[in-house]
Design brief:
This protein is mostly helical and 265 residues long. The protein is 74% helix and 0% strand. It has one domain (2-264). It has helices spanning 2-13, 23-45, 50-67, 72-80, 83-95, 98-111, 113-136, 153-157, 180-195, 199-218, 224-264.
C-alpha cells in the first residue's frame, strides 16, 4: 500500500495537467512547504564568516565604483528623504516577496498546473544554486557598512523586519549574493506572462519586478551586483524547470506508468 501511494504521488507530482484536489495534492502542498522551510533553515544555518562577508562586500563596492554604477548610497538616501517611500519600499521588500509567492503559487496550483510546476521547480532549483553561493561567497549587505551612510530602513522604521528574533533561525545576514528577491520576482513575472494574457496581470507582474529591484537597494539590503546574480541564478533555475517539463517529467511518467500498473495488479 505504501509503495502504491508513493508511486501515485510521484506520478501526480510529475504530471503537468490540471487535476481535481486529492489527498495526493495535499501531500504535494506539504512537500513543497517542507522544501522551502528546509531552504530557509539551511540558508539561516550557513556558517557566518563576518570577515569574509565584509571583505567581499567592499570588493563589490570597488567593482561597482570602477564601473560607475555604485548608486546604492544615493538610492538609500533618496528613500530616507520621504517617509512614504520608506514605508512603500519596506512593504514591497517584505510582503511582495515570499508571502506574495505563496499566494500566487496557490492560485496557479488550482488554475494552471503547468505554470505552477514551472514556478515550483524554477524556485526550488534556483534556491539550491543560491545556497551554494551563500556558502562559497558570503557578502555583508549595505546596511553593515555605515561608513557609506547606509540606513537599514526595515530595522529602523518597520515594526516587522528580517532581524526580528522570531525570524533569526531562517535568516543569514551575510547571504546577500544572489538576491532572490529580484530573481524570484523575475520568475513570477515570467510565469504570469506564461499563464495569462490579461494585460492588467502582466503589468502588475512587471511593476512588481521593477519595484522590488528598487526596494532591495532602497532598504540597504542588496547591491546591484546581488540583483544581477539573482537574475542569473533564477534564470538557470528556470532552464532546469523547462527541461523537466519538456523532457524530465515525461520520461519519469513513462517510467512510473507500468510500475504503477504492476502494483495495482
Amino acid at each position: 500500500m505504501a509503495r502504491r501511494q508513493l508511486l501515485r504521488y510521484l506520478r501526480a507530482a510529475v504530471a503537468s495537467e490540471r487535476a481535481r484536489a486529492t489527498s495526493l495534492h495535499l501531500t504535494e502542498a506539504a512537500t513543497v512547504v517542507l522544501a522551502f522551510l528546509s531552504y530557509f533553515l539551511v540558508r539561516g544555518g550557513v556558517i557566518d564568516r563576518p570577515g569574509d562577508a565584509l571583505a567581499n562586500a567592499r570588493w563589490i563596492i570597488d567593482l561597482q565604483r570602477s564601473m560607475g554604477v555604485f548608486v546604492e548610497p544615493a538610492v538609500n538616501a533618496w528613500t530616507l528623504r520621504a517617509p512614504w517611500r520608506v514605508d512603500l519600499f519596506n512593504f514591497i521588500y517584505f510582503w511582495l516577496d515570499f508571502p506574495l509567492i505563496a499566494v500566487i503559487g496557490v492560485v496557479l496550483f488550482w488554475r494552471s498546473r503547468h505554470s505552477y510546476t514551472l514556478l515550483r521547480d524554477a524556485m526550488l532549483t534556483s534556491g539550491a544554486f543560491a545556497l551554494v553561493c551563500y556558502w562559497a561567497f558570503p557578502v555583508a549587505p549595505p546596511r553593515f557598512l555605515p561608513e557609506w551612510g547606509f540606513v537599514d530602513t526595515l530595522q529602523e522604521f518597520a515594526s516587522l523586519s528580517y532581524q526580528a528574533q522570531s525570524l533569526r533561525p531562517f535568516v543569514n545576514p551575510f547571504a546577500a549574493v544572489p538576491s532572490l528577491h529580484v530573481g524570484w520576482s523575475l520568475l513570477l513575472t515570467i510565469v504570469l506572462f506564461r499563464s495569462t494574457r490579461r494585460a492588467s496581470v502582466r503589468l502588475a507582474g512587471m511593476a512588481m519586478l521593477i519595484l522590488q529591484s528598487i526596494a532591495v537597494i532602497a532598504t540597504a539590503n542588496h547591491y546591484l551586483f546581488d540583483a544581477t546574480l539573482g537574475v542569473v541564478v533564477s534564470l538557470c533555475g528556470l532552464v532546469v524547470a523547462v527541461w523537466l517539463q519538456r523532457v524530465g517529467y515525461p520520461r519519469a511518467s513513462a517510467w512510473l506508468r507500468p510500475r504503477l500498473r504492476l502494483v495495482r495488479a
